[in-house]
Amino acid sequence: MHKTVLTVLVDNQAGFGCLAEHGFALWIEHGDGRILLDTGQGTALAENVRALEIDLGRADALVLSHGHYDHTGAVPMVLGAAPKVRVYCHSGVTEPRYSISGGEARDIRMPMFSMRALATLPPERMFWNGGAQLLGDGIGLSGFIPRWTDFEDAGGPFYFDPHGLRSDPVDDDQALWISTEKGLIVCVGCCHAGLINTLTHLREITGESRIRAVIGGLHLGSASRERLEMTARALRDMQPGLLVPCHCTGEGAIAYLRDHLDCPVHTGYSGFRLDTSEP
């Protein structure tokens, strides 16, 4: 098995020497490969890679978990730093996206400058994956995640239009999985498909039932008490080894999971590092 080291590069909270930003980015070192999952909004990534001494030029792949602004804002910077990087994302990432609250519509789509940067890539470096996709030995993408549970939703008032006529289920949401000797490490951007839907799908497509760790945004900030209870119950059945909630999970949800799960729950932040070679 390959050694895997994960470093949170962008998060709503930050450790010493790093910047915080509403967004998420995760640096993945898996064997000889280097993958960046998401880019944050676009301000914190450049500062944090310098502080953490991460060389984006070594990135083999950039994976976009979905098409929201707080995960895709630094795409041009990444493409400039890593001129040979391959990009993987669902074809829906460039759709118009809006969050509507209190009668006000907020544009949350991928920034136009990021879309233009993707459009300049040659076809051999741009991969639009709707289904599961292998990235290398023991590492891959979920593709579209079926919505099986009746207690999970996309986590917000999301629409394709500013008038709230077309609901957006965020079907472009996907997760990255890594196979280790102790089970899967699951990396998520916002988990709009739902954490339990995501883990169920990954167990099915990989044939691995053990979940070693989950890291990333879980989008439970506005989750009902019932959803939190059902999520915790399902997680206790799945018995993950570690949970590292980040970004959009919500402080209340993190506290609830910490109180109701058997596994450790460590809040993620910019600069957080997980080394699978460590016990």
UniProtKB/TrEMBL annotation:
A single GO molecular-function term is: transferase activity
- A Pfam family in this protein? Lactamase_B
Ranges in coiled-coil conformation: none
The record's listing under CDD domains reads: DHPS-like_MBL-fold (cd07713)
Q: Where is the Metallo-beta-lactamase domain?
A: 22-247
The UniProt entry, under SUPFAM superfamilies, shows: Metallo-hydrolase/oxidoreductase
User: The organism sits in which domain of life?
Assistant: Bacteria
Q: What is this protein called?
A: 7,8-dihydropterin-6-yl-methyl-4-(Beta-D-ribofuranosyl)aminobenzene 5'-phosphate synthase
Organism from which the protein derives: Desulfomicrobium norvegicum (strain DSM 1741 / NCIMB 8310) (Desulfovibrio baculatus (strain Norway 4))
Q: What lineage does UniProt assign to this protein's organism?
A: Bacteria, Pseudomonadati, Thermodesulfobacteriota, Desulfovibrionia, Desulfovibrionales
